[in-house]
């Protein structure tokens, strides 16, 4: 079997915004998580994730500890390390991973099986509870990690391990009579198998992924069949038949996002992958319908998804309460994956706009600026008292946490940020689509010609981007620049000359086809203004409110800047709003300020209700980027601000 | 022991508003509940409440069925019947009650004990779990019922039963060394024992009530002691140490309402009773602090209380979310009890205003106009989809239910409405305070002189009240009329002549002291206008919103009148609002109408967010009394309306 080390990112991030985050991942998150995986963090519940593998390898004595999906923490950590190594080699870290990989090898069964929970706790019950027990999910993360590590280092050992495991899984599941007709309760392996196919070109993996997707939701329902086999009688806890797992009906019949949001977007990602790899038109249509449903009816302005804690799930169209949202970090990360794959199906800025919104808002909000604490839930309105005292808001933590019992989000954000360079481009033969603007250098192969590219920008704080394009030799090809949906106007120049770009626009991209020569200079100036954004009036709780946005950055008001009781602030429609870069604030951000009115609390002391008799005072408000909230004193936060019209 | 049949209401309600409700209680609620208690309602889970007593009496075979507090359903039903008999004798009904009373007598133990759950299920475990198992609560309801039935009919049998039971309880609980130092997990018996004292003049009952109140919340904590006795190790499910039962600290140290709202107000009612009966100043102070906390910081505009489903409880100051409220019918009923007792401590309209708000809004909203269906939870904002699809809003039923597994609210509203006449007056020697305005006739004894009183009014639809005062012989005494807090002005006339009432005002009451003669005529004209009410700005979710109120009636918008998506309606501050009586609508109500603006949904089809670009259209809105909502097609409802300023 021929394996190419393809898909490696040659992007070197030089961007002032992202470089800091990459350093935080490298310097804090990866080392901290390694300590956590090895149970060396004081005053924290042990992870036991590495120890579980040692246990299976017979190198220590003891009991399995952790979630059924504990293995995936190790996998996601390796994947983050792999992406980090792409950016910057690190021998010491590579050595650690090599040792973990060797341990995984020793823990792997003869037949390829590798799951510490089942190997230790229930060796006889493998593949008997796909619905709940995350076996295929963990396998998927191992595969993703192995692919990333192989791409970053060229080392095959981990890839061999997961290929053997995937081969074993393919021997267990499939259409043949003796095989199980199942599919995972938590989707993940589907997208991972496509990645494995990408690096190995082994179509078995693509077919297995397709099998899992195609089989899903068929009747009689596999989850019922295996439940009967287990002699389990109690009803499933979530509403509706397996909508929680997006297994309530076949995927091609699904038009509305339902159930657990992370599972949903991981599955949609794989569906989009398969649609493009297999030219499956019906799958593409399903992806498009689901995309429109999520982004036009079920997505917060931060690109957070999942509006209820029950099931960590989607609820229903336009139901986007700010103070009850779930908006899990992992779900927004999954939305990035999905958007990225939709761009493979069709170059359309509607996908890249959401990808960008998620990257600059709902994903990185999950991590403290110093990388030491994390949000699982990224709400749009926080009142600490409510989080403390109301059971229905207890999932909304007013401060980030060090680590979680279910530690999915911290390593997920680490692998996303470390792989940021993968999301800048889509290449289709001799077309290069530029989705994201961030300082970086890279080499891209177009028809055998190496094209050096250097992008410079202060994005997201201003909209000026310069791109140096240097092919080794002159070559005709297309560079397509995304003009973000938020931009009020754009000026495109090539070598100093303005390009009349409107006729070159298609689906939000300016297609510049020309013969490119060394040191050609592309300049893009996006008009970045402060926008008051309104929500569709069917989003009940946002009527009469605006959110502030500038470029891709969504803003919020914090108590530390604006005092307590933020909902008593009313922003007049005509109030001037100013943007200003503050270098020393929150690692350098553009703040938005302006004059608003605040309802006077004085005179209300002993009254709860009274006939209208407003007293307001003028106040200066200060808004900061949503992603950076809760990096100073804890307190209230709102994204949607009452408006005075 | 001398027992007087005192406390009987001689009030005959002739009021167009309340008479209909009394008839509904008589004609539908009481007969329906009797069928329910006897398990004769098809397609409904059986109550078994009567059957449980038969079981104990040894008259049938079988098993106990129902809640641990199932007995209280029978008690509350008898109490409702008793009050109904006061209004209108009914031999058939009285006969049924007599038979039930005889059954209770046969079920009662030799020593006075009477609780079917323990008698059948756990005869050896009596008084071992006061915290959870409602033994004293059920006893309290039996006592209340017996007192009411005695007052209504003069029949002593039931009273004798509960006296014997109360004597038994007094032999079990108390300060003496051999007695248990406990008190109920669900307060109720405390206020019942005061009622029993009132009719029997037996101070043991007053002292036992006082003992329960005084003992509450002391350390070491009785609930811990009995828990240890039970060898129970699991922690109590609610936040904080027994705040759920208002037993987290001694009652005199409690300044903020916490925990289960019904338990709280039942306890505060007893505290106010004891404060006035025993002249306990420290208890009075605690009542006042708690009153101010509840009514100034934790009460919905409808007099609903309890803002979270978890624990059916208070949450914290100013936390009054409209779409998550619990606002149990029983809690507002308890607030009526408490307000009534506070008026015994001090004549102040702040108590009567809340009493009135609860009566016309948050209590009767719990019952369908025809008396056939009931709300347990009385929310201030309803979106049926959210109730159906969001687990955190599932307690908010978009339509009233026939009956409940925990059937506390339907009989509670029945007994409240049936006893409405008891809340009109407070008499203090030769002062008669008129709290409520409703058509009725009565005879009141002032210093041995019978005073005939006839009140006529169209209240709550207009503010004109006439009162005919006819003493048997001329007599000097004071009639004090409450001028409600909502009134913008009042004109008081006696025998056609305007009284300059301002100098006669004290704490919201006009004190008219004169020699009254036959057919003296008092007229009171309260200015009843439509008010836009604002909430204290610390009530986060009501900033920028108004509620409409006219007289004591709080209004709401329903989907049936105003279409879907009610939060997209904005009511301009200067829009004229009109009140109009509609005889054929909802049994005759005053509606409020006016012109508002509605955010256009057209043009938003495929968008969730966009820069501000409002399009509004003018719409006519129609508001109906909150209590009458959900008596037509089900749909959305809001009390707090967005305002355009």
TrEMBL record, chains A, B:
Example GO BP: carbohydrate metabolic process
InterPro entries (UniProt xref): 6-hairpin_glycosidase_sf (IPR008928), Beta-AFase-like (IPR049174), Beta-AFase-like_GH127_C (IPR049049), Beta-AFase-like_GH127_cat (IPR012878), Beta-AFase-like_GH127_middle (IPR049046)
Domain Non-reducing end beta-L-arabinofuranosidase-like GH127 C-terminal per the UniProt entry, residue ranges: 531-642
Non-reducing end beta-L-arabinofuranosidase-like GH127 middle domain: residues covered: 432-528
Pfam families in UniProt: Beta-AFase-like_GH127_cat (PF07944), Glyco_hydro127C (PF20737), Glyco_hydro127M (PF20736)
All residue ranges annotated as the Non-reducing end beta-L-arabinofuranosidase-like GH127 catalytic domain in the record: 10-421
Name used for this protein in its record: Glycoside hydrolase family 127 protein
Organism: Metabacillus litoralis
Organismal lineage: Bacteria, Bacillati, Bacillota, Bacilli, Bacillales
